[in-house]
Structure formats: structure tokens, C-alpha cells
């Protein structure tokens, strides 16, 4: 679709300002230079047009404007860009990131990392949205997903006009890749203060909606029915997914287990009863063939550090050994969990780029047990079920849940994505 000059003149200043802010925020997040350059603005309508945006596999974030309900935004990042940003954010070795970028091998770890990157991207945009839409505009990160070539996110709507801003993004020395911001017509109009001509179907639907909304003098309009409560808490800095039964699948979101020190949970309610689960004689491990067993969705191996070991030992375990979740051990029993997010907060954005000063050295040599001391542990026993794990992940807004033996020994972690994959495979079957 041809785009009128008046729309371009409104769009370019906004995105130039936004990309300057975003580059600065991503510099801080990754401790590496990031350059975002606006290269084009266009209008698209219908799924046929939108298919051109997924000519390669992409990482996609779906964002709703939930303050005034004016529409939505899709962030479409090339997989190589999301891998580079995620790898640098997680402080992986450069050689590892280079290999992943070259092969475009996209796994669960990068998908979780893209969720955190998306929070940063949406946060930078939200600062400008709230200034432009002073009557209550606000963006809400709802979901992130991976789209293979030829597939479209289910949140795209046919027959809707979208304003598409394209940017070249270069992360450190990695190749430049195209990324796109796809704004629905309603949100773009509210944000930029410019009318955008919709398709004939859109204009007809708008006229019909106006006619239906206008009350007659003889008969007042009926009262609105109360809206049902939304069972999800996903997006933004926190998130979550719906509590599920045997046939329902959770939706992605949530935060790391130890990301918030103020977690409210009672140990009695968090730990699951063992029920009738069968255990092997060696080590008390659950029989992995037992139907519905939580053992079927344990995707992260157990790794613990004694509480007296140093914070630097935990940083090394994360950066060099690849552990995403670390149990804190006291007398052989799990007392706490640390995530990559917890350790990154301690490390700061410039860890590894400059010499360690006296203050940092003092922090890194503290016992790791000093971190997140107010956290009340949420865990599930080896005898728990997949549904119980899904309910705990939902209730406490977690990305990972530790699995413990009857003696309180860490046996692994269940992640959001492992539970999601289980329910997806079950649905397909």
C-alpha cells in the first residue's frame, strides 16, 4: 500500500527518537554497542502482505495497548539479532554466540532471553507512548513466540491495516539484520495523531459500529455486562499463565523463581504430597514412566552451591558452566533458588568490561547464601504431578520450579517451557 507523506512525516520523528533511546537502553542491557537505524515506513493490509515479514525465522513479541484499548504492536526480530542480544545479556562467551548466530540455532534458553529483551524494548517505547498518549496510553507485553519461515503469529488479524516501521539493528560486531515494529491502525492513529485510511472493510465496520453505538431517544442503551476477569498475569516485568487442568495448556510468561525477594508462600502449601508415586530404590528418583509425573517435565539438571560458597562461584557457574538456576544448599537440603536475573543484578551491566574495584570485590566474595534471604521457597516434591507443577508456576508467577526429594534434596527444575511443550504435544496427540 502507498503511504501518504503526512503519515511518514509523523512517523519518522517518533521512531528516530525511539530508536535513539532504545539503542542506549540495549547498550546498558548487553554492555555492548547496539545501533538501531530507521530504514523505512510502510502500510500493509491483510495476511498476504504480512507474510513478507516472516521471510526467515523470527522472534515475535505481541504487545497490547491496554490503557485505552486502541490496538496492538508486534515486534518482529530476526532470530540472529535476538540470539546476539540474549547471548550478550546472559554474558555467554563471544565464540558461543557467534556459532549460534551463524547456525541460527534457536532454543528454549534464547526464547526466554528474548522475553527479557522484549521487556526492555517495550519499556523504552512505553516511556514515549505515555508522553504522547497523555490520557492513559500504556503498552503491555503479552506473549513472545518463535515463527518459522512461512508461519505467521496467530495474533495478526486479516483485513486490518498496519503501519510497519523497519530498522536495521547491529549488535556489537554481529551482522546487521532487519527488525520491524508493526502497529495496528488504531494504535498508530492514537499514538501519532494522524488519520490512516483503512481498507473498505475496516471503514464499513467502523461505520457500522458507530451506528450500533448511537442510542435512540425513545430507548436508552442497555447496561454493559460486567467483563469476565482475565485469568492471566503475563507480560510486563512480571507475568504468568493460566492455572490448568488435565486438558488445558498454560500460556507463557512469568518471572524467574528468585527474581523477587518478597515472594509470599507458605512452605506447607507449596510442597506437594507424594501421593502414590513409585520411587526407584537408587536415590529416591521418581519412575520416569509414571503417567502424569512431574519427572516427565524436569528440563534443567540439579545444581547446588553450599550457602557459604562465594557469590563469585555462582557467577562462574552461570557464565562458564551454563547453569540457569542454582540451588542454595544448607546441610544437604535446598533452602533457596537463584536465577540468572538475580546474579545479573549483583554483577551490574558492565561486569567483565572493566577491572573489578574494591567495592565489587567485597560483594563478590560474600557468601552466596546472603542473596535473597527473605525468599520463601516454593517447590514440588518428586511425587508431584505435572498439573500440580503448572498450578504452582501459575500461582506464584514463576519461570522455573525446583523439584526436591523427600529429604529436601534438589533433583532438578521444571520450567514454564517444559510444561508448555508437554501440553502442546498432548494436544497434538
How does this model look, in words?
The chain is an alpha+beta fold and about 425 residues long. The chain folds into 2 domains: about 5-195, 3-Layer(aba) Sandwich (Chemotaxis protein chec); about 265-429, CBS-domain, CATH 3.10.580.10. It has 13 helices and 13 strands. The protein has helices spanning about 5-30, 45-50, 80-90, 95-105, 110-130, 185-190, 200-215, 265-270, 310-320, 340-345, 360-365, 385-395, 415-429, and strands at about 35-45, 60-65, 70-80, 140-145, 160-170, 175-185, 300, 305, 325-330, 335-340, 380, 400-405, 410-415. A hairpin with a 2-residue loop joins strand 9 (about 325-330) and strand 10. Helix 3 crosses helix 5 (about 110-130) and helix 9 packs across helix 10. The longest helix has 26 residues, at about 5-30. It is globular, with a radius of gyration of 24 Å.
Summary of the model, kept short:
With about 425 residues, the chain is α+β, with helices and mostly antiparallel strands. About 35% of the residues lie in helices and about 20% in strands.
Give the termini distance in whole angstroms.
42 Å
CATH superfamily membership of the largest domain: CheC-like
Q: Which range does the strand content fall in?
A: 15-25%
Task: Report the major sheet.
Answer: 6 strands, antiparallel
> What structural category characterises the helix and strand content?
alpha+beta
Topology-level CATH name of the largest domain: Chemotaxis protein chec
- Calculate the mean pLDDT score and round it: 79
Provide the domain count.
2
- Based on the coordinates given, report the CATH architecture of the largest domain: 3-Layer(aba) Sandwich
Rg on CA atoms, Å: 24 Å
What global shape is seen?
Answer: globular
- CATH class of the largest domain equals Alpha Beta
Amino acid at each position: 500500500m502507498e503511504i501518504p507523506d503526512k503519515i511518514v512525516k509523523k512517523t519518522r520523528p517518533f521512531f528516530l527518537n525511539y530508536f535513539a533511546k532504545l539503542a542506549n537502553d540495549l547498550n546498558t542491557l548487553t554492555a555492548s554497542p547496539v545501533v538501531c537505524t530507521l530504514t523505512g515506513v510502510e502500510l500493509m493490509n491483510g495476511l498476504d502482505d504480512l507474510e513478507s515479514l516472516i521471510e526467515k525465522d523470527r522472534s515475535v513479541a505481541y504487545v497490547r495497548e491496554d490503557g485505552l484499548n486502541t490496538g496492538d504492536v508486534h515486534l518482529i526480530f530476526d532470530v540472529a539479532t535476538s540470539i546476539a542480544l540474549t547471548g550478550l545479556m546472559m554474558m555467554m562467551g563471544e565464540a558461543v554466540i557467534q556459532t549460534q548466530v551463524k547456525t541460527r540455532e534457536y532454543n528454549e534458553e534464547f526464547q526466554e532471553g528474548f522475553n527479557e529483551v522484549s521487556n526492555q524494548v517495550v519499556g523504552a517505547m512505553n516511556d514515549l507512548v505515555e508522553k504522547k498518549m497523555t490520557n492513559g496510553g500504556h503498552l503491555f507485553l503479552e506473549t513472545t513466540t518463535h515463527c518459522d519461515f512461512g508461519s505467521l503469529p496467530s495474533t495478526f488479524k486479516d483485513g486490518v491495516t498496519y503501519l510497519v516501521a523497519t530498522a536495521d539493528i547491529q549488535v556489537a560486531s554481529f551482522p546487521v539484520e532487519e527488525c520491524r515494529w508493526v502497529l495496528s491502525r488504531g494504535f498508530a492513529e492514537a499514538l501519532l495523531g494522524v488519520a490512516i485510511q483503512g481498507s473498505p472493510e475496516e471503514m464499513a465496520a467502523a461505520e457500522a459500529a458507530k451506528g450500533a453505538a448511537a442510542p435512540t431517544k425513545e430507548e436508552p442503551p442497555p447496561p454493559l455486562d460486567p467483563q469476565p476477569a482475565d485469568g492471566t498475569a503475563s507480560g510486563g516485568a512480571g507475568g504468568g499463565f493460566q492455572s490448568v487442568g488435565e486438558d488445558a495448556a498454560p500460556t507463557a510468561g512469568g518471572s524467574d523463581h528468585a527474581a523477587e525477594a518478597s515472594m509470599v508462600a507458605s512452605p506447607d502449601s507449596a510442597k506437594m504430597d507424594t501421593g502414590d508415586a513409585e520411587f526407584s530404590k537408587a536415590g529416591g528418583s521418581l519412575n520416569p514412566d509414571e503417567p502424569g509425573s512431574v519427572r516427565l517435565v524436569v528440563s534443567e539438571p540439579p545444581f547446588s552451591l553450599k550457602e557459604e560458597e562465594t557469590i563469585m562461584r555462582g557467577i562462574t557457574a552461570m557464565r562458564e558452566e551454563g547453569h540457569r538456576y542454582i540451588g542454595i544448599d544448607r546441610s544437604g537440603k535446598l533452602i533457596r533458588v537463584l536465577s540468572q536475573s538475580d546474579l545479573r543484578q549483583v554483577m551490574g551491566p558492565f561486569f567483565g568490561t572493566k577491572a573489578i574495584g574494591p567495592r565489587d570485590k567485597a560483594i563478590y566474595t560474600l557468601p552466596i547464601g546472603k542473596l535473597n534471604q527473605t525468599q520463601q521457597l516454593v517447590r514440588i516434591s518428586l511425587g508431584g504431578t505435572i498439573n500440580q507443577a503448572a498450578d504452582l508456576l501459575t500461582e506464584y508467577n514463576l519461570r522455573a520450579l525446583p523439584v526436591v526429594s523427600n529429604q529436601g534434596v534438589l533433583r532438578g527444575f521444571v520450567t514454564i517451557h517444559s510444561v508448555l511443550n508437554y501440553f502442546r504435544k498432548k494436544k497434538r496427540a
